[in-house]
Fold these 4 entries.
Entry 1:
Amino acid sequence: MRKIAIIGIGQTKVHEHWQRSIRDLAGEAIFAALEDANRESVDAIFSGNMLSGLLDQQNNLGAVIADWVGFKGESVKIESACSSGASALRAGMIAIASGEIDSAMVVGVEKMTDAAPTDVTSALATAADSDWELEQGVSFVGLNALIMRRYMHEYGWQHKDFAPFSLNSHANAAHNPNARLPFAISEKQYLNATMIAAPINLMDASPTGDGAAAALIVPLDSLRGDQRAVEIAGSGAATDTISIHSRKTPLFLQAAYLSAQSAYAQAGISLEEIDFFELHDAFSIMAALSLEACGFAEQGQGPRLGLDNEIKINHGRIPICTMGGLKARGHPVGATGMYQIVESVQQLRGECGETQVEGAKVGLAQNIGGSGASIITHILKIA
């Protein structure tokens, strides 16, 4: 199996793009990645998207995007809820690694803000179990609130103990021109924010938005002195029960653990070698659970990393969400996994300005689908 490298990246700002279509957003990111790689074409396009059929009335998205950018080869949509972006990347990697193709454009794209908020809420809930969760009337944020409430009860944490996750993401997003919410927040703002589903308030939850992010991938052995190339050293994927109540340990992300262990082994990378972590902070509780599942904290002790300033850039043990994460960069769900990849490449190239992790050589990116049902982990390093 051939090793894979990223040679070009592109992204749009996460925003309310009222005048732009889903194909237009995908096209902008794709053309930017082609220009960045100094390439004119690819062998295939893999698009990560969750909601085009529900919110845009547009299935067959692979063909739509290919048509828009003038491409006639293989082009498909990959869907695995909020982890669709990383799933598309993994599909493209496998196609190249097998020798079937020699290059692929992977784009994550989502158009969410044209739909009514109630429709978006209903669409997002389809990431959960329709028979055993949605039928009971619980929303997706409600499911995460149940997890957070139980976590606080089991381990003795207070709501304020999760504040560092949101404060860190917003502080980093203030330096990201593509962020949805590019401003810092205070602890007081966090604590006084409007409650959505107790104990999750507005500052615990990531904002939706429109956006697209793309990466051009090729076999690593095809490169000739490309100093900006980044190797995808490890890739792991795993699933857990889609319904939370069916899990043996509801407060542990088993799929995150399994996919991370697979990626570590494939990359030959130890925990101590990871310089930053682009985690899936759709809700602040998920930041804590991801840190625990990936080995950076003991079970039940994820918030301690934030309280001890261990998640800050150039100050802590494991900087997270270096460009704002889902919480402040924004969470256009099917595109999120590719934003994480693009931002990881920027870190490894040394292109992150005020939020650059000094001497970064290895990065970890983890994309979560549903409330932990589908999780993909990638390890990137300087080629």
Entry 2:
Amino acid sequence: MKKDHVYLLTFLGLAVVTSVVSYFSMNHLLEISTNHFLQTQIESSKREANEISLLIQHQVENGLPKHTIIKNLQSSIENTNTESGFVCMFNWSGVEICHPNPEKIGQQVLPEESFVQPVMYNELNPQDFYNLLKNKAETGGIREFSEEGRSSEIIYLYPVKGTDWIMAAHANINHIKDRMQKLKTNFIITFTMSGILLIIISLFMVRLISGRYEKNLEKQNEGLSKEVVTLSKLNNDLLLYKEKKERPDDTHEEKKENSLVKKRILTYVKDEIVSIEQENIAFVYTENSITYICCLDGKIFHSNNSLEEIFSDLDSTLFFRANRQFIISVNAIDKIYKYGNNQLKIELNPRSPINIIISKNRASAFKHWLRG
């Protein structure tokens, strides 16, 4: 798989996870923030309605004419319906007496046109108010009204003692929705920028970590490549050596050198003495203080001589002392492997019963011997 494809999949995965987490987190935080805002608005409207109700009550008790009270209240609340909340006053029959919009004065407030929350009932729940604004559906004590274009709803009522007047606290729906939309927009911008930044940083960290990992792999691959080249050379030298041995045109010096070495090794099978040609020997090894001679045809013989004594009688151009346990013939070497820390593993044909490992101290001598 190409690196660019991996990075693309990583980017898409981070984008999906970040988007899902941001979506649910944003909605949860938006709901909490909006509920807090609505709670503040409800408390502010309640406080304003109570204060005005007490003020009017005080004026009535001091004998101030009602028309003067109504005139003063109307002048003080006129054109305040552009804010998040405002107050109005109507009588027990539902007729508007004072309203920020003078055109509303004298109109009837019908029960089915607005939600009325009397002071003696349960307090208005901000969650219910939020669901009404968000879903426009009936919830809690709030219901959807026939007048869809209505710009405000009564969320709190407080009667004026000694009169038939009722102070009503309104919530400006349009203004509140605008505030909610701005809050949502800010959340979207914040989460989007944070998500993009998180994806970029995460992708950068992935590339940084993967880059270091790739460098380590490249170094390991370079080392393996060098080892493969070395092993290839060894195996090539082995093939060249075998081809050289198969040629009939041996030089006089080689014949003279070989004549100084014993051509046969004596061993036994039970009570019978057996003479083995050196060229037929694949390897010699010891196990449990017993010396075994394995031939190229797979036959195995025993010897009373030690490994050192046998090696001294063998042709050093054909045989190599691999370790304390093995003497191997170049004619039996099948494959050479890199093993452990600069060690070599030799695979023979026929197979040896024990792994043949050449230590790193003997590896250089083995390579020199194999090159001839």
Entry 3:
Amino acid sequence: MLTNDIGINAGTIWKLLSQRGNLTVREIGELTHYKDSLIMLALGWLSRESKIEFSTTNGELKIGLKQVVSDLYY
């Protein structure tokens, strides 16, 4: 897999989180049809860029977009 492909998958997941809000890895997989390994690579990319945050609800890992300061005022 090329680095560019990981970036493209990260962009797809970012858009999905933007539209749907917080999701689990399983939900991301069901909506994108990506394998878990591809999801994890893309989440690593987004995490390194500080674009996502992780939370736990009832023992379930959720992924969501970080709120940017400009988003708070517009």
Entry 4:
Amino acid sequence: MNFIDVHCHINDKDYGNVDGLLKKIQSAGVKKIISVGFDLPSSECCKDLSEKYDFVYFTAGFHPTELKNYNEGDLEKIVELTKHKKCVAIGEIGLDYHYPDTNKPLQAEVFKAQLSLAEKLCLPVQIHSRDSAEDMLNILKEFAPLSCGGLLHCYSHSTELAAEFEKLGLYFSFGGTSTYSGSKKARRTIAALKADRLLTETDSPYLPPKSKYGAFPNTPESIPEIAENMAAVRGVTVEEMTQTVWNNAHTLFKKLN
């Protein structure tokens, strides 16, 4: 089976021996991973990783909680990174209202700027959305349809809102939290969405699945467990679920090869 992790964060700080980790990931049957940038230095590190390993791809962008590191002219540097043959998307971008010191206007400004950039470059986006459902939907409606597609990673909003996002042509990825029996909202959404909208991720080193509860770091080795859970929720075989996700990833991320 061809497992894929469309959203993880691979770096020396959290994992130590990255060479050893990547060998274990491949041994687990994970054929491709997308290592996701959250600011300029992390995006550059992801690029370097993709150049060293054939099965690693990357994204470049600014996460909404990392804007303290954002400077004028940084988007031009992101543009340069997107020219790389293995940069498959702009991301991780979006909105995050979880923290009390959130600068909502700045988050919206940078999010919209990166959505516009993706439109100009004809690249999909990887979107982070936390405690921001209404504003997220309204902004995405402004840009709809996203001509080159987009992914709501680690989807956490309601099943009803997922239907609205689905109308905009978005994809949805689910990670380790969806494997817990208490994750009823995620399970309902996985069951309700069209099969051609579903993707698997780990958001490593965070969000371990049920079998690794409390472990850190989580790794893309968890993808088979996540895919098995999604297959069970939808009442299909793991093989069918895995092939569907593989096809969906390559449809959304055109630069995967």
